[in-house]
Design brief:
Elements lengths: L1 E9 L2 E7 L7 E6 L4 E8 L6 E8 L3 E7 L7 E2 L23 E7 L6 E6 L2 E5 L7 E2 L1 H4 L15 E5 L11 E4 L2 E4 L8 E2 L22 E6 L7 E5 L3 E4 L7 E2 L8 E7 L7 E6 L1 H4 L9 E4 L7 E3 L17 E3 L7 E4 L5 E4 L7 E4 L5 E10 L2
Length: about 375
């Protein structure tokens, strides 16, 4: 039987919601990994059975990438953690690099490849479907690394976007550093931030080569060279794989936000959740809005008016909004107030499917065959 699975990672554990294709009635299991931060999850449908991943951080046992081949009934982990920095990996001050969090988990193009983005800012690659990972040296040894700063939530690679047909092209983004591109699988990387503003830098340095506080990047469903970017201040589109960016924020309630999501099939269609600036970090006027463009950012429209709440003073973080790949596509977002909302009809109507969870960090959903 076909169902829908939604993984919700929070500051105190993981919950897994299940529904049918209608996505109106949900059940859930959890908490998995109580009192562990879950900043990243992945629903990997490659292989004979789907594999779920959770990037967890425990105050007692440290970070670990856990995996499940039975939709969360049982979990496996790699001894001493699936991701660890090698002994010769040091921070700019000369101290030993120690993994703090796994911020991103993404499937690669090649069979068995899984990418991970971490704090401190690094990218790791697995070739055994997430059981072990190896540090990608192209970014760790990059001359810019000593100048990357930590965003408000920490220095982390939070976006990894493997090209759908070219396994050697894997753009990535971090706060604070910007977007970096590679054409050789990560051995070498170059900054790709032309046109993206760094509003916190003085004067003529507003548009630096690197150093932007990029919050999230998403890839168009049809044109792989078209990217959408939510910045610390500004919303942008690139039509050349990140070589240059143009401002598409006009028409939005605010140019600040964290999340950026694209439709799984429709071209030029992207979604963001505007936030009322860095000083407030909640929706404009306390009104929850998911805004959509269907023309590459030329115009924007709010979705679900009347079914999303007022008095909503919670942020939606960079990975706490997503789309599934059903038809019609479902949209999801989770707030730092512990509520998770779902629209089974591409944003026309919404319902709260979880409430009173801990601080939501990540939401991912997909259609799965029940085991």
């Amino acid at each position: 039987m076909t169902g829908t699975t939604a993984m919700v990672g929070t500051r105190k554990g993981l919950w897994i919601g299940t529904s049918d294709a209608e996505r109106t009635a949900w059940s859930r299991s959890g908490p998995h990994f109580p009192m562990e931060e879950v900043y990243s999850v992945l629903i990997d449908r490659r292989g004979p059975t789907p594999r779920l991943f959770a990037g967890c951080s425990s105050s007692w046992f440290g970070p670990q990438v856990r995996r499940s081949d039975d939709l969360g009934k049982t979990w496996q982990e790699t001894p001493n953690g699936a991701i660890r920095f090698p002994a010769d990996a040091t921070l700019p001050d000369g101290s030993e690099a120690t993994l703090a969090r796994v911020w991103q988990l993404q499937p690669g193009v090649e069979d068995g490849v899984v990418w991970a983005g971490t704090e401190p800012g690094a990218i790791f690659r697995s070739t055994d479907r997430g059981e072990t990972f190896e540090l990608v040296r192209g970014l760790w040894d990059h001359p810019h690394r000593a100048e990357w700063d930590a965003g408000f939530g920490g220095q982390a690679f939070h976006t990894i976007l493997p090209h759908p047909t070219d396994g050697q092209s894997v753009p990535a983004a971090l706060s604070t550093g910007g977007v970096y591109r590679t054409s050789d699988g990560g051995s070498t990387r170059a900054p790709a931030n032309r046109g993206v503003k760094a509003e916190f830098m003085p004067g003529e340095r507003n548009y630096p080569e690197f150093g932007q506080c990029v919050h999230k990047v998403a890839r168009d469903a049809v044109d792989p060279d078209r990217l959408f970017l939510q910045n610390h201040g500004g919303v942008y589109r690139s039509d050349d794989g990140g070589s240059s960016w143009q401002d598409i924020a006009p028409g939005l309630p605010s140019e600040f936000g964290f999340a950026m999501v694209t439709h799984p099939r429709e071209p030029n269609t992207a979604y963001t959740f505007p936030i009322d600036g860095a000083g407030a970090r909640w929706p404009v006027d306390g009104h929850a809005r998911v805004c959509r463009t269907t023309d590459g950012g030329a115009t924007w429209e709010p979705l679900g008016e009347g079914s999303l709440p007022d008095g909503f003073y919670a942020a939606v973080m960079r990975d706490a909004m997503c789309a599934d790949d059903l038809d019609p596509a479902g949209l999801y977002f989770g707030g730092r107030n512990g509520g998770v909302w779902c629209s089974p009809d591409e944003g026309r109507s919404w319902q709260e499917i979880h409430k009173d969870l801990p601080d939501v960090m990540v939401v991912r959903a997909a259609e799965l065959q029940e085991l």
